[in-house]
Amino acid sequence: MIFVVTSNDNKWEEMRHLLRAYGLRVGRIKTALPEVQSQSLEEVVTFSAKAALNEIGQAEMLIEDSGLFIDRLNGFPGPFSSYVYKTLGCEGVLKLMEGERERTAKFVSVIAYVRKDGEVRTFHGECRGRISDRPRGTKGFGFDPIFVPEEGEGQTFGELDVAIKNEYSHRSRSIANFLRWYGTTSGS
Ligand code: IMP
Description:
By secondary structure, the protein is an alpha/beta fold. Helix content is 36%, strand content 24%. The protein has six helices and six strands, in the order E-H-E-H-E-H-H-E-E-E-H-H. It has helices spanning 9-21, 41-55, 81-87, 89-96, 162-168, 170-186, and strands at 2-5, 26-29, 60-70, 104-115, 120-131, 147-149.
């Protein structure tokens, strides 16, 4: 059994569908791990993975860190997305983008797989899109109502069911990269 360590119900919902669809047995540990401030999501998630190893110590664990990178804002809020969401929210980000015509952005997800023997591996996934003019939709979490993925039909993630979001989200791609590797190492 692989344990997903996250305090975020939405992340768990997305991740468990993807992992179970692949046939893995997955459980959840609902706790917030310590995070470092860093420009690199890989660094943040590796730090948390090591904390999980020390504090939880299940045989196999997955930890995820993600962020919204807005091109016109030089990648802001990026690794600081969680703090910016709490302080400014979607409306605050829309204000920063007021009058901007260049609205391209990407969501990035990095997953760390950590094993009791100390092995930590990270897997990356991205979803490109743009920042909408106003919040739309009530599904999902965080910046979902203001992010329009390139592959969709113009709806924000906030307007899409989790199954559709999972078809091309950053998180589904980091998980796909993990599963590709995991399949070749574990024979599952
Ligand atoms: P963390 O990965 O828990 O540090 O938080 C990342 C933050 O980025 C979240 O609090 C959200 O605000 C934002 N975020 C990351 N992934 C998503 C997503 O799939 N939808 C909406 N917001 C996201």
